[in-house]
Design goal:
Blueprint (H helix, E strand, L loop, with lengths): L1 E7 L10 H14 L3 E7 H9 L1 H9 L1 H4 L3 H4 L2 H4 L7 H7 L7 H12 L1 H11 L7 E5 L5 H14 L4 E5 L7 H8 L5 E3 L4 H12 L12 E2 L7 H4 L17 H8 L2 H5 L6 E4 L2 E2 L2 H5 L15 E2 L2 H12 L7 E4 L8 H4 L11 E5 L6 H10 L3 E3 L7 H7 L5 H14 L2 E2 L3 E3 L6 H10 L12 E3 L2 E2 L3 H4 L8 E3 L2 H5 L4 H7 L2 E4 L4 H22 L3 E2 L2 E2 L4 E7 L2 E6 L5 E6 L1 H9 L4 E2 H5 L5 H14 L3 E4 L2 E4 L26 E3 L5
Parallel strand pairs: 1-2, 1-3, 3-4, 4-5, 7-10, 10-11, 11-12, 12-13, 14-15, 23-27
Antiparallel strand pairs: 5-6, 8-9, 16-18, 17-18, 19-20, 21-22, 22-23, 24-26, 25-26
Helix pairs in contact: 1-12, 2-3, 9-10, 11-25, 22-26
């Protein structure tokens, strides 16, 4: 029996198993049975303890570290032993200043012991005794993977080393196959079928035939255009391969000090679709997530329900389930989520495409889909058009309002710096953001990045972009410029265009506004205490608006006419549309609109308006539970302002 050792290296999150390796282990066991034994080794968990949980999670999760390449650079000297030590040059470029002293010292200290740490793990997991060692690579895993492959080869040159994952899709994988001798084979694109074919070749002692399999690259075929541009065949998404997660839980059990720092428990991945149904129609300009596989396919609803029920079996060990999908299948709220009996306290994370109906959001909330990545990205319709989003700022704001009502947490960022984005967008943001503190905030303000496979990259001349690999690549890989251009996934525009200057001038001010917004949503006593802007009925034909967005709770008594106006403002509307059927006439309408605008309760863009006040007057479907409308108790001074005119 041959042994296949699958390895998850830093800087994969230590508290999340590898969905890819879990599925690969399952399919190899099913297809090759007694010919091949498979084990999944979570060395990233060992490294998290070695580096320290705080530093490891910071490097794993924060964009500022992703954009310095520190996770890969840590392993440079092992991965490329003939390369010069460029530590001084690296730290002159990144992590300068007194605020980084502690991190710099930690990196230098731990980096010095990495080689011995790797050898200890090779021995503990018997990696040099395996017939084939396979690595998965996403984001900052290349450096660690190459380093470990290099050391395994030092121990036993006969071990066959392979690597696949998002970092290996061509042309990136072709460069790795050509320039990294420690990797015998690199898998480009989907690998469920190609790994089975590869292992059959290994079992039958005809490994030379692997060079003829599309999607598998080696030093022998990587310059052949047939293979340099190819990806592996896609596996049927309805072939439900339940991933091996037992190895992950075993690894966690061996590191109790890590699990003690994470009371929320681990997160398990699942898959119900591939590609992007919106991207097939309009590829968002900055998105490179799908590589060459944009075509959309979703799992049969019955299979999806079966997968969820299997995942629910881990509820005692894990309360967080996270999709690998780019977007929630459109039929799933009705055909899948409505059929789930999700255990209490289990949270399901999905990426979604706006707009979402209120009935779908109600179904999602009932099913435990209470964290979503909605792809908001901007609060200006002009910027959303630059992205090709197919949405408006009004749809984004309506969604955020509905999130409050249904208890769904949106996971989003405010992106700036899109080519063609004018300074006027940021100036309006500075006026509008303080009015939105009662709605769920973004994580932060970030400048858009140019990724391989995105329209910005593929049509860079059309957008006037002068793209080069981010400069940390040259500090990690001892490759020439042409190879770095084919290897890199992240790029920077060197044109110094007006859009870059505009975003740079406004970034810090917007960052501070979002920081204040987030501060208003910080945890207090274990529950969120956000600001409030809500209409509440407090008697027959009597309503009060409670407004605590500005650190003081103001109350405004309003009449039936203003309540009706707020109801009509729950959808974007023009003044002339409001005026139709308005019994009070134009002067009365203008007076009420002026009052709402003066109080910061109205969002406007162009000639359309949207009310920001929450309340039980939203239009929408009848199905689903009633929205949450409980007024939060806030420890604020109450000031009753004069009634609205």
């Amino acid at each position: 029996m041959l042994r296949l050792a699958l390895v998850n290296m830093p800087f994969a999150a230590w508290n999340r198993p590898s969905f890819a390796l879990g599925q690969l282990a399952t399919v190899i066991r099913r297809e090759l049975g007694s010919d091949v034994s498979v084990d999944v080794n979570y060395l990233n968990v060992d490294f998290a303890e070695y580096l320290g949980i705080s530093a490891y999670e910071s490097i794993t999760e924060k964009l500022e570290h992703l954009h310095t390449g520190v996770g890969d650079w840590l392993f440079r000297q092992i991965a490329f032993p003939d390369a010069d030590d460029n530590s001084d040059k690296y730290f002159r470029r990144f992590y300068r200043g007194d605020e980084w002293v502690e991190l710099r010292d930690l990196i230098r200290e731990r980096r010095a012991g990495l080689r011995q740490m790797c050898f200890d793990l090779i021995d503990r997991h018997r990696l040099a005794e395996a017939d084939v060692v396979g690595f998965t690579s996403m984001f900052a895993q290349n450096g660690a993977n190459i380093a470990m492959a290099q050391l395994i080869k030092e121990r036993n040159p006969h071990v066959v080393t392979i690597m696949g994952g998002a970092n290996c899709e061509v042309p990136m994988g072709a460069v790795l196959a050509e320039r990294v001798p420690a990797l015998d084979y690199v898998f480009s694109g989907p690998s469920l079928d190609t790994l089975v074919s590869f292992m059959k070749c290994r079992v039958d002692d005809r490994l030379d035939e692997a060079d003829e399999i599309p999607g598998i690259l080696s030093q022998r075929n990587c310059r052949d255009p047939r293979f340099r541009k190819s990806i592996g065949a896609d596996h049927d998404i309805d072939d439900l391969l339940l991933p091996d997660y037992d190895s992950f839980f075993t690894a966690l059990a061996e590191h109790p000090r890590l699990t003690e720092t994470n009371p929320a428990g681990p997160t398990l991945f699942f898959e119900t679709s591939r590609g992007c149904w919106w991207g097939e129609r309009s590829h968002c300009t900055f998105c490179g997530l799908n590589g060459q596989s944009m075509n959309y396919r979703s799992m049969d609803p019955g299979k999806a329900v079966e997968q969820f029920n299997w995942l629910f079996g881990f509820a005692s060990q894990c309360s967080s389930l996270y999709c690998t999908d780019n977007v929630l299948p459109r039929s799933y709220p009705r055909e899948v989520l409505s059929r789930l009996s999700t255990p209490p306290d289990v949270s399901i994370y999905y990426e979604v495409k706006l707009p979402l109906s209120r009935s779908d959001m109600a179904t999602m909330a009932t099913a435990g889909v209470n964290i979503v990545q909605p792809g908001i990205e901007a609060l200006a319709t002009s910027t959303l058009k630059l992205m090709g989003k197919g949405t408006t700022v009004f749809q984004n704001l309506q969604f955020l309002k509905n999130c409050v009502e249904y208890g769904i947490e949106p996971d989003w960022n405010l992106l700036i710096g899109f080519p063609g984005e004018p300074a006027s967008v940021y100036e309006k943001y500075r006026q509008d953001l303080p009015l939105l503190s009662h709605l769920p905030p973004p994580h932060g303000v970030y400048t858009v990045r140019f990724d391989r496979f995105s329209p910005y990259y593929n049509r860079r001349e059309e957008y006037g972009l002068d793209l080069y690999p981010m400069d940390y690549y040259g500090l990690i890989y001892p490759f020439n410029g042409e190879d770095l251009a084919d290897l890199a996934y992240f790029f920077a525009d060197h044109s110094l265009a007006p859009y870059q200057i505009n975003s740079a001038e406004h970034h810090d001010a917007l960052r501070d506004l979002v920081a204040q917004w987030r501060e208003a949503w910080q945890e207090h006593g274990g529950r969120p205490a956000p600001r409030e802007l809500r209409l509440v009925e407090d008697g027959p034909d009597s309503w009060t608006i409670y407004d605590s967005r500005f650190d003081t709770l103001f109350t405004h008594r309003v009449d039936a006419a203003t309540r009706e106006l707020l109801r009509r403002l729950t959808s974007p509307v023009r003044r002339d549309q409001l005026l139709k059927g308005w019994s009070g006439g134009p002067d009365d309408l203008d007076r009420r609109l002026a009052w709402l605008r003066e109080q910061g309760m109205l969002f406007t863009e162009g000639d359309r308006m949207l009310g920001l006040v929450l309340g039980e007057f939203e239009p929408g479907e009848e199905s689903g539970p009633e929205p949450v409308a409980e007024l939060r108790q806030l420890p604020l001074t109450v000031i009753q302002r004069p009634n609205q005119p």
